[in-house]
Amino acid sequence: MSYRVEHDSIGELKVPQEALYGVQTLRAVQNFPISGIKPHKVFVDATVHIKKAAARFHSKAGMLDKKKADAIIKAADEILDKGKWLDQFVVDVYQAGAGTSHNMNTNEVLANRAIEILGGKRGDYKLVHPNDHVNMGQSTNDVIPTAIRVSGLLLVRDFLPVLDKLANSFLKKGKEFAKVYKSGRTHLQDAVPITLGQEFTAYGHCLKLHHDRIKRAAEDMTSLGIGGSAAGSGLNTHKDYAVGMAKLLSEQTGLKLTSNPDLFEAMQSMAPAQSVSNAIRNLTLDLIRIANDFRLMVSGPTTGFGEILLPVMQPGSSIMPGKVNPVMAECLNMVCFQLLGFDTTIAMAVQAGQMELNVMMPVIAYNQNQMLTLITQMLRVFDEKCVSGIKADEKRCLYFAEMSVQVAAALNPVIGYEKAADVVKTALKEGKSIRQVVMEKKLLTEEQYNQAVKMEKIVDPHGRSIKKK
Questions:
Q1: Is the previous residue joined to 301 through a cis bond, with omega within 30 degrees of 0?
Q2: pTM given for the model
Q3: Per-residue pLDDT reduced to its tens digit, 190-199
Q4: What are the beta bridge partners of residue 391?
Q5: Are 92 and 363 within 8 A, CB to CB?
């Protein structure tokens, strides 16, 4: 392997000749051989977008030579449009505080590629310098908070349609199961009959509400601190730089971004990342609940509820023949538990900032972007391989609906609560149906009973079924 010698303020290092990164990146690789996990692609893209926008702004402002700026922009577009050079972003996600190493990794890759575009050799920073040109007007301290916001917004933009599609799949199943009568359950005990469609419609509406909450939370991330420079004052920046960068980044990403009127606040506080993380966590809690409902409803098939049939994905046992497990619901649970871990890490990191900077930003970026990527893929798979293929065991559902002693609740207006409670006790004690006990006690005629305990009336007493909405 051939090398070139580069230096920084600490000293010299031999950098592999084929590397687009430089001495500061190499030093970080040597210092932090922690996890082997490299930066998320979207986080790289967000950082590169910032460098591209800065080159565009400074070129137009006459602060950066146009040839240098054009070369930096072209190098950035190779990453953004063609997905090239991603293997050159090599700094571990667990690194020095604030993300200086990631910022310099980006600066060095773009500088060396721009140098090549201008006909020079890698490492010849007289042509394009990582700090003086690529990082012009910037500091790690405003670049990384901005990259966290932009990458979060890009990932939320990809996630929301997936969540919406899953919600619609639940609503579609709600219509399909609108006439599937089953026993409701509260406290995991028999409750009044409902329809399977009402349960699934509620799941769909729940996810729609979470969609809106996440969308609102993400709006906090649209206010950027780029232009604050080292401490929020905007040292070494053009007077129009902060606002100009927000406009250019909006143009490049398709996001609606603005410049935070208080650049100090945008640097100090990581609350926007926490807002999105909180919203995802809250969704996660409902997803766990829904996954557990699925596991109960599919339990059995002969000794459990057995009310729904999930798509058969794989054999469920290495020893028990024919066993099939609710694997997609199980996988969803495991992913959700991991998401809660991401949220906890973000929360701890968000509160760990001091004075003008939160130095825990690298771990915030990693956990935020992993969280959004993981939940997007999990919900896409859960929709395709589970929800869309669910079928109802209508006979089993109806059996439980008719066997539930809580159909007696429909008798309350007719015979009163105390008599209805006595009917339930007798039915349970003697192993009889509610109908049998009512007839034996001559509390109602057959016609009166049928009118009071009419399944359609029980599940939709006011004729305003969810399915009509």
A1: yes
A2: 0.94
A3: 999 999 999 9
A4: 309
A5: no
**DSSP secondary structure string for all residues of 61-83:** TTSS-HHHHHHHHHHHHHHHHH-
Lookup: tokens for 213: 């909450």
Q: Which CATH class is domain 142-394?
A: mainly alpha
233 is catalytic: no
Beta pairing partners, 354: 357
Q: What CATH code is assigned to 3-136?
A: 1.10.275.10
Task: Report DSSP state, residue 392.
Answer: E
Give me the pLDDT at residue 466, please.
Answer: 53
Given this model, what pLDDT does residue 92 score?
98
Residue 421 tokens, joined: 């409670």
Q: Which pair of structure tokens corresponds to residue 105?
A: 């990794």
Give the CA distances from residue 5 to residues 95, 120, 123, 271, in Å, rounded to whole numbers and listed in that order: 23, 16, 8, 42
* Torsion of Cα atoms, 263 then 265 then 266 then 268, to 10°: 120
**Whole-number pLDDT of residue 16:** 96
Burial (Cβ within 10 Å: 0-12, 13-18, ≥19) of residue 189: exposed
In the set 317, 388, 404, 465, the catalytic residue is: 317
Homologous superfamily (CATH) for 404-468: Fumarase/aspartase (C-terminal domain) (1.10.40.30)
Dist. CA 449–CA 62, nearest whole Å: 88
